[in-house]
Write a sequence for this structure.
C-alpha cells in the first residue's frame, strides 16, 4: 500500500508544483544567425545537450546535440543555426502545473522544452525530465523532514522541557444534549495524544474511556468538560459536569443498569455499559457525585505498561 | 480478507476510502450497541452496523477501526459521510440485512471476535 500512497503523493505534487519550480533559469541560448560550430563550445562549457534559439527575446527554435552531430558528419559547420534547428517550437508556460510538462514530454518525446512567461512570451528557463525528477525529490525530502521534525517536537515534549514534573492538560468543552457532535471531543483528544507519541494500544484505552465519559456528559447533563492530564508516566482523563448528579453510584456501576432515555438507545448507546467500559479499560477509576451539584469522573491509564495487574507481555500478547 | 472482497461479498457500495480497498481486515464485528463496539472491537475489524449516524464514525475512530459498513439499506447523511472521509475511514453501505451479511462473510472465512467476557476485561486489547 505504501507504493500506492507515494504514487498518489507524486501525482498531487505534480499538480501543486509549477513549471517554474522545476525549470532551470539563466538559459544558454544561441541566435539564428550564429554558425553551427559555435555550439561545440557552448555545449561543452555549459554541459548541455541542446539550447533554445532566440531572436529579439522570443524563442524561434531549438537546436540539439543531434543536430550538431548531423552537421559535423556532413561538414556543415558554417551553416547558420536557423537552417538546421527545429523550427516549430513547443514551449511551456512558467505558471503551468508540472503535470502539463509531464504530459508534454510523453506526447512529443522531446528532451527539453523552453519555458516562457505567459504574457510576454519571454524566455525564462528550460526544463528537462531530469529537472522534474530532481524537483519532486527535493519537495518530497522537504516534506518528509518537516513531518519528522513535527513528530519529534511533539513526542519528545516531556524530555525536552526541563522541569521536575511536567504536566500537560488538554481541555475540551462538551455541550449537553448536542448529540450531533457527541464523540468529537474524544476523537480530538485521541488525535492530540497520538501526536504526543502515546503508544496505540494505550491510546485506544484512553480514547474509549474519554468517549464513554463524553457520552455520559452529553446524555445526562447540561454540559461539562473533558480534560486529559498528561505526564510522563500516566494520562488522567477527567469528565466534570454540573448536571443532576448520580444518586446511587454503586447501582450506576452495575453492567446493564441504565437510566438513559429511549432516544439515546436508538443512537447506539444507553445500554448501561458506559461506566463498565471505562472501568475495564483504565487502570484506576474514581466517580464522585452529589445530587443537584454534579459529577466528576476520573480515570487513569499508566503509560508504558499493560492494564494494572497484568504483565506487560501478557497484555501485548492479547493486542 | 480484503475490503474489496468484503464489499463484493455483501454487495456493498463504497462511499469513502476507495483508495484503501486492498487493505486487509482480520475479523468481523457486528453491533448496533456502540458501547459493545468500544468494549470488544479490535482495530483489525470491520464494523457492520444498523446505525447510520455520526457516532458510528466517532466510535470506530476511537476504537481504531478503519472500515465500517452500514447495513439494511440505510443511508448515512452527508455530514456523516464527510466525517468518515475526514477520519480516513472506509465507509460502505449495503441493502442486505445484518444476518445475511454476517452469514456470507463467515461462510467466506471471515471469523468473528470469538467468545468475550466483559467482566474479565476482554475488551481491553
Amino acid at each position: 500500500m505504501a507504493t500506492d500512497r507515494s504514487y498518489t503523493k507524486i501525482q498531487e505534487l505534480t499538480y501543486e508544483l509549477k513549471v517554474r519550480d522545476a525549470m532551470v533559469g539563466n538559459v544558454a541560448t544561441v541566435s539564428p544567425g550564429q554558425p553551427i560550430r559555435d555550439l561545440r563550445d557552448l555545449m561543452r562549457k555549459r554541459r548541455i545537450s541542446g539550447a533554445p534559439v532566440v531572436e529579439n527575446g522570443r524563442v524561434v527554435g531549438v537546436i540539439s546535440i543531434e543536430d550538431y552531430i548531423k552537421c559535423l558528419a556532413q561538414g556543415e559547420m558554417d551553416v547558420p543555426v536557423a537552417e538546421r534547428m527545429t523550427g516549430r517550437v513547443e514551449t511551456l508556460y512558467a505558471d503551468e502545473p508540472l503535470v502539463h510538462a509531464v504530459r508534454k514530454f510523453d506526447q512529443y518525446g522531446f528532451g527539453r522544452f523552453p519555458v516562457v512567461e505567459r504574457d510576454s512570451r519571454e524566455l525564462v528557463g528550460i526544463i528537462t525530465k531530469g529537472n522534474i525528477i530532481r524537483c519532486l525529490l527535493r519537495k518530497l525530502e522537504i516534506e518528509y523532514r518537516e513531518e519528522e521534525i513535527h513528530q519529534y517536537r511533539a513526542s519528545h515534549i516531556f524530555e525536552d522541557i526541563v522541569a521536575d514534573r511536567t504536566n500537560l492538560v488538554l481541555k475540551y468543552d462538551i455541550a449537553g444534549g448536542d448529540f450531533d457532535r457527541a464523540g468529537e471531543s474524544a476523537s480530538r483528544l485521541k488525535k492530540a495524544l497520538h501526536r504526543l507519541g502515546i503508544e496505540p494500544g494505550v491510546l485506544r484505552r484512553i480514547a474509549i474511556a474519554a468517549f464513554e465519559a463524553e457520552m455520559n456528559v452529553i446524555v445526562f447533563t447540561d454540559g461539562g468538560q473533558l480534560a486529559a492530564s498528561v505526564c510522563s508516566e500516566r494520562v488522567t482523563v477527567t469528565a466534570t459536569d454540573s448536571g443532576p448528579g448520580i444518586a446511587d453510584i454503586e447501582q450506576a456501576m452495575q453492567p446493564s443498569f441504565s437510566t438513559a432515555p429511549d432516544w439515546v438507545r436508538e443512537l447506539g448507546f444507553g445500554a448501561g455499559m458506559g461506566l463498565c467500559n471505562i472501568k475495564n479499560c483504565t487502570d484506576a477509576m474514581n466517580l464522585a457525585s452529589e445530587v443537584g451539584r454534579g459529577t466528576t469522573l476520573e480515570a487513569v491509564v499508566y503509560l508504558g505498561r499493560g492494564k494494572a495487574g497484568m504483565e506487560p507481555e501478557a497484555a501485548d500478547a492479547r493486542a | 480478507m480484503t475490503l474489496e472482497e468484503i464489499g463484493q461479498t455483501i454487495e456493498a457500495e463504497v462511499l469513502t476510502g476507495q483508495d484503501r480497498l486492498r487493505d486487509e481486515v482480520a475479523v468481523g464485528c457486528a453491533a448496533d450497541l456502540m458501547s459493545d463496539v468500544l468494549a470488544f472491537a479490535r482495530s483489525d475489524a470491520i464494523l457492520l452496523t444498523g446505525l447510520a449516524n455520526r457516532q458510528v464514525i466517532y466510535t470506530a475512530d476511537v476504537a481504531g477501526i478503519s472500515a465500517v459498513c452500514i447495513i439494511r439499506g440505510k443511508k448515512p447523511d452527508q455530514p456523516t459521510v464527510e466525517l468518515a472521509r475526514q477520519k480516513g475511514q472506509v465507509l460502505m453501505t449495503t441493502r442486505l440485512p445484518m444476518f445475511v451479511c454476517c452469514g456470507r462473510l463467515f461462510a467466506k472465512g471471515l471469523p468473528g471476535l470469538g467468545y468475550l467476557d466483559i467482566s474479565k476485561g476482554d475488551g481491553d486489547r
